[in-house]
Automatic annotation (TrEMBL):
CDD domains: YihA_EngB. Keywords: GTP-binding, Magnesium, Metal-binding, Nucleotide-binding. NCBIfam families: GTPase_YsxC. GO terms for molecular function: GTP binding; metal ion binding. SUPFAM superfamilies: P-loop containing nucleoside triphosphate hydrolases. This is GTP-binding protein 8. It comes from Chrysemys picta bellii (Western painted turtle).
Length: 287
């Protein structure tokens, strides 16, 4: 509680300083953690810890222990945000694209990648993660199959983030050669984020991707996208189904699902912190 109050005071100071830029910031409401700290407690939980925000809708016999596997403090989340904001010490930039592994940039810094069906919201999620770096251009589209190449974004010397083409409908022809080879060969890959649409849940193609990740022995995490769009009942059904699947049928999957809305920034701050953590940029005590 004390920690929350301290963080809110910090946030209050920031708001005073930033009042003059309220117009452009209004379209990025809740993008920055100091804005989130202005929210009342219930709303704050929903935005920062969307999984925990759903607990109140669940029957008391539902085991939600895994909902808090990754349970950073608000100060950790705030510290992680600094990595996603360009500073005097680091820049955040699009770096390069590749359609084949031998075109992928040789980078030794830790890397994370985002995979999932076409149109699931991979590029939008990356755009939301980088919303505090407005010069970084990440292209999103309503048309499935928009991202055709592996796009590498560099966050200083800290880590690289890779936006992948989608699988399934309108996937690029060379998808398998490109993405399978990447997943199998990339030495500095620290975590793969497998995105699932909260409106449709697991699809056949997702199970194929999961089989592949399990076979390669790659550590991965489920992210549930577009939670602003899903009716609560459907959202809860898909959350429980995925959590249950992760627990019972996977080896390499992190036990906690990350629900996100790239439009409302729910879950984005926690995901930034998780990325900072898995890339070794935010050592933490309790995970
Ligand atoms: N409401 C809502 N719409 C979203 C969200 N994330 C993505 N979208 C929309 O979903 C569509 C597809 O988003 P993209 O981010 O381009 O999807 P993608 O997975 O990168 O797609 P491909 O590059 O084709 O594989 C766009 O119209 C986005 O605006 C979200 O969190 N909420
Ligand atoms: Mg895309």
């Amino acid at each position: 509680m004390l920690q929350l109050q301290r963080m809110r005071r910090l946030a209050g100071a920031n708001c005073l300083l930033r009042r003059h830029s309220a117009t452009w910031r209004s379209s990025t409401k809740n993008a920055s953690f100091s804005e989130v700290l202005q929210l009342e407690d219930k709303k704050l939980t929903g935005v920062v810890f969307p999984l925990q925000g759903l607990e109140k809708y669940l029957a008391s016999n539902v085991n939600t222990a895994s909902f808090r596997t990754f349970n950073p403090g608000l100060d950790d989340i705030h510290r992680a945000e600094a990595l996603f904001k360009p500073s005097g010490r680091h820049t955040i930039d699009y770096f390069s694209s590749a359609v084949r592994m031998d075109h992928a940039p040789q980078l030794s810094q830790p890397e994370v990648c985002f995979v999932g069906r076409s149109n699931v919201g991979k590029s939008s999620l990356i755009k939301a993660l980088f919303s505090l770096a407005p010069d970084v251009e990440v292209r999103v589209s309503k048309t499935p199959g928009h991202t055709k190449k592996m796009n590498f974004f560099k966050v200083g010397k800290y880590f690289t983030l890779v936006d992948m083409p989608g699988y399934g409908y309108r996937a690029p022809q060379d998808f398998a050669d490109m993405v399978e080879a990447y997943l199998q060969e990339r030495q500095n890959l620290k975590r793969t984020f497998l995105l699932v649409d909260s409106l449709v849940g697991f699809q056949k193609a997702d199970h194929i991707a999961i089989e592949m990740l399990e076979e390669f022995g790659i550590p991965y995490v489920f992210v549930l996208t577009k939670i602003d769009k899903a009716p609560k009942g459907l959202l809860i059904k898909n959350v429980l189904e995925i959590q249950d699947f992760a627990e019972k049928h996977t080896q390499g999957c992190f036990p906690q699902l990350f629900p996100v809305s790239s439009i409302e920034y729910s879950g984005i701050h926690l995901l930034r912190c998780f990325i900072a953590h898995v890339t070794g940029n935010l050592p933490m005590m309790n995970s």
